[in-house]
Amino acid sequence: MKKKSNWFWLAIIGLVLVVCAALVAFRLWGKGGELPLPTPTPAESGDPVESADPVESDAPLEIVGPVAVVYIGDYAVDAVDLGAITEAYTKTYEGPAGGSNTVEYTTGDVRVIEASCPDHVCIGQGWLIEDMGSILPIACLPNAMMINVISLPEASESPAVDGATQ
To answer: Cα–chain-centroid distance for residue 45?
Structure first.
């Protein structure tokens, strides 16, 4: 009977050692296998190059329509006032892994027209406002790009004093 007791305790100690080794290995090799993305430099992330002569003005910025915000990874790299566009144009954004998305901007809408990703789901999403009502963002997961439209409330919709400040 004594031999069974020794084997039992040896098995328990062995199991504890295996679990401890697994926890140490998990801690050393990262959290669940997530690979850290490199922090993009302004040239890699699509950030606009700073102008040598910044415009200084005390006048408030007037936004005409909804604003499309482009994110690459965790960074907002561009914001486009869709209501102020007078002529359609395209712009290409590069992701942190080297992939790219070409985005078309028109008056009041935005869509992805070309992408280097394998599945092209971002292209299939179509026009963001016309097709989806700007409820969902356009997302390209392989290239770590997302476009979200922010609609600003009209002056009549947002009173100067609300219930919390009265």
So the answer is: 12
Please state the pTM of the whole predicted model.
0.56
Residue 134 to residue 145: CA distance in whole angstroms: 16
- Residue by residue, what is the 3-state secondary structure of the chain? CHHHHHHHHHHHHHHHHHHHHHHHHHHHCCCCCCCCCCCCCHHHHCCCCCCCCCCCCCCCCCCCCCEEEEEECCEEEEEEEHHHCCCCEEEEEECCCCCEEEEEEECCEEEEEEECCCCCHHHHCCCHHHHHCCCCCEEECCCCEEEEEECCCCCCCCCCCCCCCC
> CB-hemisphere CA count at 13 Å for 149?
23
pLDDT in tens, 48-65: 544 444 455 565 667 777
